[in-house]
Amino acid sequence: MLPNEILRITNISKEYRMDGVEFRALSDVSLTIRKGEFVAIMGPSGSGKSTLMHIIGCLDKPTEGAVFIEEHKISMASEKQLAAIRNTHIGFVFQQFNLLRRTTALANVVLPLVYAKIPAKERLERAKNMLTDVGLSDKMENFPSQLSGGQQQRVAIARALVTNPTIVLADEPTGNLDSKSGAEILNLLEKLNKNGRTIVVVTHDEHVASHAKRIILIADGKILSDKKL
Ligand SMILES: Nc1ncnc2c1ncn2[C@@H]1O[C@H](COP(=O)(O)OP(=O)(O)OP(=O)(O)O)[C@@H](O)[C@H]1O
Ligand SMILES: [Mg+2]
After folding, report:
1. Is 0.90 surpassed by the pTM of this model?
2. E strands within the chain?
């Protein structure tokens, strides 16, 4: 990979097998993402966007093809190595926030640092700073049920960023939010990108996509177009 590239996938395909029937969710997808890019992935429901995000995010392996993240070749990695690569390189933000319900905002953000074996004092400090950055300094002790949807998503973004990942992946991060909370999340992602963070976001929303610098259109598991804005 070139020095400014952080992710490269080559000739990826993904087949799901159900009751002996094969379904090809991605076919022959190749893609390179460089440091500091803000990429939106768009396409109809069922076109393979989440499948692609899961492969980029090392949550799933492709049936064929290769995935490189910085110096790592993912197809060669064991489950344990994959988990370690996820923890150090990937920040994931999901549509349904995926916060632990019985755990405070602060403890949710601390958790990835526990897995990363960061000392207790440092992880508390980093988690607090991160929550402050997303505007939640007064909500650290709240449980998810005591937060609005937009606030929960900001906790999820703080959790995704606290490990200082190479790349932030967000799958419909504003899908469950009203337009005002959605706009807050969008501003936050834009600010992160201005500070040099690499961001890939899946969205149905033209408005969200208009903030990106590059739009990749997917249909039927293939890249239809890939345009810089
Ligand atoms: N675990 C699975 N087993 C079988 N088929 C699956 C599985 N996961 C996804 N699929 C199929 O793969 C295709 C792509 O799914 P994917 O979730 O990637 O779509 P998407 O573009 O994210 O759609 P949406 O916009 O609705 O979220 C769909 O037809 C889906 O039914
Ligand atoms: Mg999806």
Report:
1. yes
2. 5-18, 21-34, 38-42, 64-69, 72-73, 90-93, 167-171, 198-202, 214-219, 222-228
Q: What's the confidence (pLDDT) of residue 13?
A: 97
Report the alpha-carbon distance of residue 9 to residue 56 in Å, rounded.
8
Q: Quote the CA–CA distance of 96 and 174 in Å, as a whole number.
A: 9
Contact predicate 197/211, CB 8 Å: no
Joined together, the tokens standing for residue 96 give 């349904």
CA of 40 from ligand 2 middle (Å) equals: 13
pLDDT category at 126 given cuts 50, 70, 90 is: very high
19, 49, 224: which to mutate for ligand 1, most atoms within 8 A of CB?
Answer: 49
Residues with CB under 5 A from ligand 2 (ion): 50
Instruction: Tell me the C-alpha distance between 179 and 184, whole Å.
Output: 9
Taking the centre of ligand 1 as the mean of its atom positions, its distance from the CA of residue 170, in whole angstroms, is 16
CATH of 37-54+78-228, one of 1.10.10.10, 3.40.50.300, 3.30.70.20, 3.40.30.10: 3.40.50.300
- What are the structural domain ranges in the chain? 37-54+78-228
Rounded to an integer, the average pLDDT of 124-133 is 95
Cβ-Cβ contacts under 8 Å for 90 (sequence gap 6 or more):
57, 58, 69, 165, 166, 167, 169
Burial 211-226 (b: 16+ CB within 10 A, else e): bbebbbbbeebbbeee
Terminal Cα-to-Cα distance of the chain (whole angstroms) = 24
What are the C-alpha distances in Å from 31 to residues 115, 117, 220?
30, 32, 16
